[in-house]
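Example 5.3 — Helitron helicase-like domain-containing protein
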Amino acid sequence: NVQDNPHIIAAYLKIRFDTFFTEVLKPTFDIVDWWNRWEWQFRGTGHSHGIYWSSSAPEMEVGTEEERQTFAEWWDQHITACNPLPNRCHES
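Solution (predicted structure tokens):
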């Protein structure tokens, strides 16, 4: 029973994340330093927040328009976002 053995689920989640981090994130982004924090939602859903330092990313010197453009173009190759409900109105 999962509810009686949450430590098994936590260990499985960590193993999966560590494998994804080692096999995908580190080589793709040339990550040389990182910090992760694990959190658990009310119903037991585990997730991680993290900060990662990439050796191949441009310096975050964004004083000029050219520096901002270089920084944005590099990250634009790696980061995407998708709104699954673009027509949904906010309730606020």
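Remark. The mean pLDDT is 87.
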